Amino acid sequence: MNLYDYAEEKHISLRRLLDLTLCTNPLGPSNKARTAMRKVVREVGVFPDDKERYLRRFLSRKTSISEDSFLFGHGSSHILSLCLQTFKPQSVKVLRPLSLYHAALLGRLGIRYGELTLVYSKNGFAADTEELLSEASTGATMLLMNPHDPSGATIPLEAMNELMDAADRSGGMLIVDEAYIEYADLQSAADRAARSSCCLVLRSFSLFHALAGLRIGYGIGHPSLIARLSDISVPGCVNSMALAAARASLGDAAYCRRTREYIAAEKTYVLGKLKGLAGLVVHDTPCNFVLVGLEDGNRDLVGMLLNSGIVVDPLQEAEGKRWIRVPMQRRPQNARFVKTLRFLLSRG
User: Within this chain, do residues 95 and 142 fall inside the same structural domain, yes or no?
Assistant: First the structure.
């Protein structure tokens, strides 16, 4: 749902809506990023560095991956779109339930997708790595989120390396979106992707670093793959403020620590308040959100929450439930959601 369209249609202020569709950092941008943005305002009359050299060098030192393995764009969705337009797959294999964001992107590009179902248990969702390995061995194009949105399921690095090996052997394409990885205790597959000609890792500054309004993300892959994608990209498409803020945020270790501590505390609060509510199945995830499954009698809760000014994405149904993803906000917003949900459930 487009919040701007909804607010205009209903003639209400955006401030009255609680947006639970974006899993951005509840603390907002880091203080170092804010400072960097204020400084770069003096340079807005100058075109941005079309080689992104300072951010590129910083990431190369941080990851020990060569500078020519990085490609920057207007968010990770921009890089993903470049990749799909370059290789033009007729279909893409994805994990179900599929995020609305990826479903919309594939739809705009006219690409069909085949679904690989996650394994569900009392502990939540998990990927069937054997099924994924079988698909990767067929030469298919696969788009995997790790951690997965919206389920929070993760694929360990060892299994991801095996998938990339299989893609190399079969000549398929493996795209790994790591937009949520900084929230989770999970190792990145970027180093392995940089040594593969048919694998690409996507990273974003929109969520953990709370820079969604600046639109900046990047891809990591073999230099030959990055060069091919660069041929159809627009040089200098990332603005100076985004480059400066991204670099400053990456270097703010205290911000990363505060974020993880804050989200852990808010999860404890929300899970405690939702525990035991009739008609709900609640799972924690390694990301900054909890997963709530609505039983048959409560599936209209999405619309009722919207009528209460709380916007959530209705996700695909799986395991006989309709799932919603609940990202952590500041305490007042989390309390508002919990109070509203408990009230709606109490009304039957």
Answer: yes
Q: Does the pTM exceed 0.70?
A: yes
302: confidence class by pLDDT, cuts 50, 70, 90: confident
Domain of 338?
3-20+254-346
Q: What type of residue is 331?
A: R
Q: Which two tokens stand for residue 145?
A: 């989120």
H/E element holding 40? Answer: helix 31-40
Asked whether residue 223 falls in the same domain as residue 263, the answer is no
Reported as a single tens digit per residue, the pLDDT across 237-261 is 899 999 999 999 999 999 999 999 9
Cβ proximity of 270 and 289 under 8 Å: no
Q: What is the rounded distance in angstroms from the CA atom of residue 190 to the CA atom of residue 178?
A: 9
Query: Quick one: 227 and 319 in the same domain?
Result: no
Burial 106-124 (b: 16+ CB within 10 A, else e): beeeebebeebebebeeeb
Residues 271 and 149 in one domain: no
Same domain? For 215 and 83 the reply is yes
Per-residue pLDDT reduced to its tens digit, 117-148: 888 888 889 999 999 999 999 999 999 999 99
Residue 26 lies in a domain: no
Place of tokens 């199945």: 281
